[in-house]
Every structure is written in structure tokens, then in C-alpha cells.
Design brief:
By secondary structure, this protein is α/β, with parallel strands linked by helices. Helices cover 28% and strands 27% of the residues. The protein has seven helices and 19 strands. Strands 1, 2, 3, 4, 5, 6 and 19 form a seven-stranded mixed β-sheet that branches.
Length: 347
Amino acid sequence: MTQQTAQTADTAQNYDVVVIGGGAAGLSGALTLARARRSVLVIDSGRPRNAPAEGVHTYLGREGTPPGQLLAIGRTEVTGYGGEIVDGSVATAERLDGGGFRVVLDDGSVVAAARLLVTTGLVDELPQVPGLAERFGRDVLHCPYCHGWEVRDEPIGILATGPMAVHHALLWRQWSKDVTLFLHTAAEPGDEEYEQLAARGISVVDGEVTGLEVTGDQLTGVHIGGRTIRCHALAVAPRFTARTGVLAGLGLEVTEQEMAGHVIGSRIATDPMGATEVPGVWAAGNVTALTDNVIGAAAAGVRAAAAINADLIAEDTRQAVAARREIFTPELEQEVSERVLGNRRGF
């Protein structure tokens, strides 16, 4: 696939839409726009959040596809319809006074866009346990719908770091009968929660986890209170932080997202179609919906792209009407109407 190169400030190429981020949301949005015959540029660093995972799951028709392969397929589809892709990162993006946007890449090149689609994703802020980050996405996991089947019937540990810990333990119990809740830094469960855990056969271990036991590149246990407890998968609850650094120049507000009354991270707020509070800017995927899986992010990209195309069509129509009015004065319009009517009557 041929990668396009963004141009310098003096010769900045104009696009209908620049997509910032080339994951599932960004590529799905770009594909939709390219098929709508819009000029589209995707800017992506090639470092997807789910890169450590062996496969993408619950994605109908692509079940188990390695993340890198899925993105490669998506890039080929986008360029096949005339979309362009730049390997790089966005340094700054700003809204211009006369309308449209100026986007500067990290290599200093500049492009211009009538609309922006932001699909920059999020960062997983993990608990500070030695060795945990290195195994995240492999056998340190956060989503049972993404990874539960792969660790079914294995001993699964739950690292409790917040008020949702008991809920997570009960959730993961669906995939294995051998589940242990490590209280770690979370508050002790209440009496009703202890009863629920006992009813489902979930063990509870007090104390902080101090490290992981890895044997042959496989998690085999966690260290806690001077002992090692068998564990082949460890479920954690990261804080999800939207990647918004490059968006500061756009004036987008970052808000908190809650689940069951508890804050789970920060995101960019949008309407159901992905429109942000800044005119001309849409967002899709994990940058605005922290718990979306891959297929959900892809769907959000399609919705946002459809809304962007509709917005561009409305602008194209306004401009066409204005241009027509400059040519056809009321007097000329009347004359043309009379001639057309006369021709229809055979005069």
C-alpha cells in the first residue's frame, strides 16, 4: 500500500476530512467517507492500544484476527477507495477563523481540512504492581468479553483497586469456577457482597499484591503476604484516559465518564452521532466511549462519518445556492421562467 506524504505549510493539501487516529474507529470512518467520494486523509502512528493481544474478539466476521492484521486490511480498503494514509502523529490542530482546520504533523508538515474526525483512543493507566504492565493484554486482562473465553476454566485472579471489584469478580466467574479476589488496595467488601462472593465460590485474599510469578512466559501466580497464590490470568481495572493532548488547540473539553456511579476515566463528550461541542469536529471510538470494544468503535466511526458527510452536503448546498443567486438576479430569473413557460406552450 502506498503511503501518502503530507505537504509543507506553503503547499498544504486540502481535504474534506482529516482523520486523526487510524484504529478501528478511524479507518471505518475513513472508509465510509471515501466511499462517499470525499477526500480523506488518515494520520496514524501505527501503535494501536490492543497490539499485545493475540486476536480481536466479538468482531463478527473477523473473530480472532490479530489486531495488526485487522488494521492492515482496513488500510488497504481505505486506500482502495482513494483515501490517503500518513504514518505519523499530529503535533497540533487548530480551527481557522475563516472556517476549516490546520493540522500540523510531528515532522512539521501541514494539511488543511474542512472537517476533523478525532479517533485518538485512550491510555490504560494500570495499577502500580511490578511486572504487571509488561503482561497487559496477554494474561493481565481487563475485559472478559474480549479475553474471557481464552482463559476459561483457568485460575483467574481479580486485582481489587476500586469499588467495582466485587462486580468484576462476579463477572469473571462466568468464565471460570476458580476465581480469587485479591483485595489489594480496595476497601473490604460489605456483608452482602461477602455473601454473594461465597455463594459463587469466589475466594477472597486480604493484603496487597507485591508482584507476579511468571514461568516460561506465562503468568503462574501472584505474590501476596509472603506467599504465592496460583493464578493464570489476572483481571485489572485500569483508569481509562482519552488521548487528548494534541486537541488542546481545538478547545475541546474533557469530561469524566462514570459506570454504576463510579468514575472510570476521562473522555471527550459528543452527541450520539459523534459531534463535539466544537463545530466541524467529530469524535469516535475510545476517545469518547471508554468501554467500546473494537466492533463498537468501528460502528461509531461509521456513524460519525455519515454525520460528517451530511454536514458537508449541507454546506455544499448552501454554497451552490449562494453561487446561483449571484448569477441569477430576480429579473433574470423571471425572464428565464417566462421563456421556459413559453417553450412549454409552443410559442
